Amino acid sequence: MLAIPCPSMDAEEAKYFTKMSSVWWDTKGPYRTQFFFDSMIVPFIIEQIVNNRKSRDEHLSDDQPLNGLKILEIGCGGGIVTEKMSRKGGDITGIDVNLAIINVAKNHLKLDPSITNVEYRLQSVEEHCLDNFEKYDVIILNTVLQHIVDKEPFLQCCIKCLKPGGSAFIGGMSQTWVGWFAGIFLAELLGILPRGTSDWNKFITLEGIGRMVEKFKCRFVDSRGMFYNVLTGNFFYLKSTSVTFIGHFRKDI
Fold first, then answer.
1. Using an 8 Å Cβ cutoff, are 51 and 42 in contact?
2. Are the C-beta atoms of residues 71 and 93 closer than 8 Å to each other?
C-alpha cells in the first residue's frame, strides 16, 4: 500500500508492488522482465545525455560522463535504474511513495558502499516539486505513467523539477493493440509477468506523452522501442514503439 498520500497513483496497483518488493532484484523471479527492461533503458539514457553534453562542448570523463549533473528518478521503485545510472557519476535522487519498495532500494544500496552519490526519499513528485523547482538536469520516469490515473497534472509536476534545457526520459508500455497482446495477454499467459501487473486502460503511447509534455515546453528528441524475446529472456531494441518504449524529451530554454 502507499505510505504517503499520492492522488495520482492507483492504490490497488500500489498493493501489488508492495507484494513484489521481496523479489525486486531477483533476475529469475516473477519481476525479472522489469529488471531486464530497466537494464536496457540505461545505456540509451546515458548515450543521449552524453551526446547532448558533447553538443555543448562540455568536457566529459570517459568513466563518469554524468559528473556535474543532478538527476531525479520519479517512481524509482527498488532502485534498479538509479543504481545503474549512479555508476556513471552525477548526483542522483530517487523518490517513491511506497515504503516497502523504497526500503528495498535503500537496503540494496548498502550492498555496495562504493556508491555515495545516491539519495532515496519517501516522497511524491507532487510534494517534491514544491521545493525543487527547476533543480535537475535530468529526470527519469520509467514504467510509472501506466499506473497513474490522472497523467497530465502528474507530468506537469515532474517537468517542474527539470531545468530549462534539461532532459526528461519517459518509458512505458504503449496503449496499442500490439501493446495489449504482447504486454498483457501473452506476458500473463506465458508467465512473463504476474497477472494484474498492468491495466491497458492506463497505458499511453509515446505520441500521447509528447502531446502532454509539449504543453509544458518539452520537445521530442529521440526514442527506442523494445521487445522481450521469450526464448533468450532478454529485451532487444526496435524502431517501433508500439509495445514498450523509452522516449527522450528536452525542455525549452
1. no
2. yes
